[in-house]
Amino acid sequence: MSVLATDGRQLSTGDERRLVTDGPRVTPDDILQTAARLRREVGQGFHEQLMADMYADAAQLAGRAVTQPGEAQRFDLDRAIDRIVTSRLWGFPLMILLFTLVFWITIAGANIPSQWLSSLLIGVVYPWLNSAAAAIGVPGWLSGLLIDGVYLATAWVVSVMLPPMAIFFPLFTLLEDFGYLPRVAFNLDNAFRKSGAHGKQALSMMMGFGCNAAGVVATRVIDSPRERIIAMITNNFALCNGRWPTQILIATIFIGGLVPAWLAGFVSAAAVVSIAVLGVAFTFGVSWFLSRTMLRGEVSTFSLELPPYRPPRIRQTIVTSLIDRTIYVLWRAVVFAAPAGAVIWLIANVTIAGQPIAVYLVNFLNPFGLLLGLNGVILLAYVVAIPANEIVIPTVLMLTVLLTGASGIDSGAGVLVQTNSNATILSVLGAGGWTLLTGVNLMLFSLLHNPCSTTIYTIYKESGSKKWTAVAALLPLAMGLIVTFVVAQVWRLVGI
Amino acid sequence: MTPTTSDRQPPMIDASACAGCPMHNPGQLQRLGVDMTDWDYVIALAGNPNVGKSTVFNALTGLRQHTGNWPGKTVTRAEGGFVYDGARYKIVDLPGTYSLLSTSLDEQVARDFILFGRPDVTIVVVDATRLERNLNLALQVLAITDRAVICLNLVDEAERSGLLVDDRRLARDLGVPVVPTAARQNRGLDELLAAVNEVATGRFVGRPHRVQSQAAGVGRAVDELTAQLATAFPGLPNARWVALRLLDGDESIIRAVRSGELGELGHQEQIMLEVVR
């Protein structure tokens, strides 16, 4: 028996025994050296040859297994649809029209169930809870904290968010299931390339329209680290679940209120779409800026597969989007709203020198807020809402009622009852000194501010860099401050 | 009034309608959702983007991993479990990739799991309407493992566009089981499970098609490197593939050799290389 040593030398029997006792000694470095030598020997074209061999095999195997249809090319519906929805001329207008339609259905459809829910949860359940608490002798501070704080904030979140989400998510999922999203990516690819970003960023942006944290994770499809960082930083400009309800509500109240009732739904939808489109524009603008300053480099190419259109499975889509997205997002909102409600109630009811803490905070923030065309309540709400954007509107409403003593308040501070219509919300906000400018700037600030803490943490985990996490958190906030400031100053100058 | 075709035919039970029903469960598939304690076998689900991996995953586990008609939805691994024929299976839904060669994070997640996770069976989901391109990935998987089952998905779409795919011929050529399915309609999943079961239990041993390089001198170079690898890392299940990757200058494989990580492949049953976390 003979054994080959690693260098090819034939070993004698004595050598063999030594080998057995010592064990074969091929170190990783030996292997890497051999590999490097052999790599030089096989030459440059090795990789290409490898790929070519594989492609040839795949083609041959597929050719043997597949029988092509004998008839001539039939009318191809997919291609016909693609020709329209990805056309240079019609692609963008169709995209905007389609999304406007989705929001119009959402806004028009959500109004009535929203009223039902709030009259049930706030008009019926809330007084019942109060009287039940009084009947069993719960101390005032505890029932205030639990019912006026935790319960009301949660009820607000549910009645404001559930109906639009229950309509919007299934519609969006149907579009997704149908195969429209890759076409959107196709349409946007050119713009992304011109911004120095990766075309696949369109896909992570689409995920961002659902949830920015998910969008940041979705940037993993982008190979180049430079382009991936760009995609992470700009993902926040895609309006997320937590912000759609804010946009929809404020647009319905302030923008929809400007026009006759029959136009209101459409105009509100158009306003929401404009903010979303503005967000996309900021995505391009900031990508362009980053790829020319902090993140310079070449744009990498990729191929995007346009999948066949598939008839959406309507029942399943509705069920899964209700369970996976609507309930999930609602649950997250409730989880954050409950403690936030307690915090709001506490700062509204714990007094220092006869004044609630909230009054000090709001008064402190108010001058900055007014400078930005917002107010102290909104800024405070955005501090409270750092864990989740979902609770901005409930916080704003509860704080406004507290500070203004607006209509529909009960005896306790910070308690809002009987708000079963948008008109009531408008009157509450009107009492809080809100104008059209406040509404518009809230929509802008909702688009442009720091991502929620979950997203910030996800960016840190995905990028592994404190620096880029800080940029991703602070850049949108700075932009929001600048944009709202400029809008407010111009607005007041023009004197609308 | 002229009778229509259906009027004339006697009423009969359409067997295919049963197979399409989610309640149809001849193989005692028991969906376990995320409960995957004490599994007997680990299954990896690989394939090109948007061929229905997550749909297959959901159908087998009863979970609702996000599905949608666009490539790139799944970027992390999703895991779930099911019981079939008395054995507990853990199934891992991998990100969709076109190849296992390049370096983007989603491709790396997929490759590292197939290579280092050493699943008992790798299901390669391929799109019947785009077989040629999909086979590129299947061939790469077969280069790593012989414990594979091809799930020829979307046969309903292929039928609609008039394509006929000969799954038996494909199975003979590839040397591993090929099961035609339409996962969206729950068609063919029982057969898929049966095939997976065969491979997992070792009743079927695949002899996969391996791509032979046409380039001069490559065969000898691969042989030499494979021999060295086999000496340094005894028990390495896919030394030949590793040799090819080294010849190609694959950085992550070079790293795995240098750190000795590759060697653990021969010894340990379960190594989950956590690229992501």
Summary keywords:
heterodimer, A: 496 residues, mainly alpha, two-stranded antiparallel sheet, 20 helices, 3 strands, 72% helix, disordered N terminus, B: 277 residues, alpha/beta, 7-stranded mixed β-sheet, 12 helices, 8 strands, 16% strand, disordered C terminus
Structural notes for this entry:
The complex is a heterodimer of chains A (496) and B (277). Chain A has 496 residues and is mostly helical. In chain A, 72% of the residues lie in helices and 1% in strands. A two-stranded antiparallel sheet of chain A has the order 2-3. In chain A, β2 (351-352) and β3 (355-356) form a beta hairpin. Chain A starts with 12 loop residues before the first helix and ends with a helix. In chain B, strands 1-3-4-2-5-6-8 form a seven-stranded mixed beta sheet, with helices on both faces. Chain B is built from twelve helices and eight strands. The N and C termini of chain B lie far apart (69 Å). Chain B has helices at 5-8, 15-19, 53-61, 105-116, 131-144, 155-160, 167-174, 189-200, 218-232, 239-247, 251-259, 264-267; strands spanning 30-33, 41-47, 78-84, 87-93, 121-127, 148-153, 164-165, 178-180. Chain B is of the alpha/beta class. Classes of the chains: A mainly alpha (496), B alpha/beta (277). At the A-B interface, α2, α3, β1, α6 and α7 of A face α4, α5, β7, α7 and α9 of B. β1 of chain A pairs antiparallel with β7 (164-165) of chain B, so a sheet runs across the interface.
